[in-house]
Known about the structure:
Blueprint: E1 3-4, E2 7-8, H1 16-19, E3 30-33, H2 35-39, H3 49-62, E4 66-68, H4 76-86, E5 93-99, H5 102-111, E6 115-119, H6 124-131, H7 135-151, E7 155-159, H8 168-181, E8 186-191, H9 198-211, E9 216-220, H10 227-236, E10 241-244, H11 258-269, H12 280-291, E11 308-309, H13 312-320, E12 338-339, H14 347-356, H15 366-380, H16 386-393
Parallel strand pairs: 3-4, 3-10, 4-5, 5-6, 6-7, 7-8, 8-9, 9-10, 11-12
Antiparallel strand pairs: 1-2
Helix pairs in contact: 3-4, 3-12, 4-5, 7-8, 9-10, 10-11, 13-14
Amino acid sequence: MQNRDNKKLWETSPFSDEAHHGSRFPQMVRVADCTLRDGEQQAGIVFTKQDKVDIAHALDRLGVYEIEAGTPASSDEDRQAIEEIAGAGLKAKISALARGRRDDIDLVAKTGAYAARLSMPISAIQRVNKLKLGDEEYLKLAREMTEYAKERGLAVIFSPYDTTRSELPLLRRLLEQFNRDKTVDRVRIVDTTGCATPQIIGFLVREMKKVTDIPIEIHCHDDFGLAVANTIAGVQQGAEYISVTVNGIGERSGNASLEETALALKVLYGVDCGLDMSKFVEVSRLVEERSGITLQAHKAVVGRGAFSHESGMVVAGLLKEPFTAESYVPELVGQKRDVVLGKKSGVASVDAKLKQMGIAVPSEVLPDILKKIKEEAVRTKRPVSDSRLRELVGASAVSP
């Protein structure tokens, strides 16, 4: 429970301290947003150069620490967008993705990005089928590419993707090599096919922390709906960076949602990612518009129905004390509360909605209006709109 301007912002479980005992949260958690790279890799999404620039500015206003702006090798437009973003004077650091190739690294360096995200698959199934590399060849290529990126003046974020299906001995050897060579600034755990559990991510972070002090980033996919939980599990064991996307867009079922992960860390775990969370809805709507991916109405945090209430019992409690129905105030994330009238509404709901709309009616007619509302909702299988409510109230309204 926190206060802003002496207003209670949330009311969560009293069991937090006991349940989270033993957590190893780092002192600071930073957001490395990859909406412009992995987000765009969702089938059917195309961001233009201007889309990318506009979203980058929005992410910067949000307070994101780092923006993974794209893959310069993928297209000229992507490269130009990264160049413009990197030269825009944003507070956020700008990184770009490169495969384990010198020409890819050269392209990243030319964009003006501060870091190359070297993406090289580490699991046997990926290495054999994509790179045809054995363990020794993989370690050799990793050394050569990280050294070359450093020579080009870039920070290096190494992404041994499909980490969650890798062999632990090879992962340990890779980290030990990075310790010796001093060529890597961060290592990203990648749950490429979204097959990990929170316990697996936590285990990997603990094992990696035994071998290296290099900061760890968590990048999870949502194939089992666990991306946010997995990301938090990594942070809970000491990972310092979270790789997330606005609205959770990304390959297949998407990535860990920026807004869900950051809000949960702040409210449920007391870990601040340095974001202005009141801008969540604003940034979400921009990405929704530019990506063409319409959010489900009940999407957590930023969905249009995330703070809509219809049930009569729920609304009756909400009117007396909002925390009977909500864990945090909608304004915290740029939302507004809404009372929806329909089949499940009660008299208190109707009274509150009419007052909100500035319509006065005698209290004795409220049950009759409620009956009409329920009948209308059943007939149309939809909630009653404000305009239709005015019609249903009709002559019952009291003249001012």
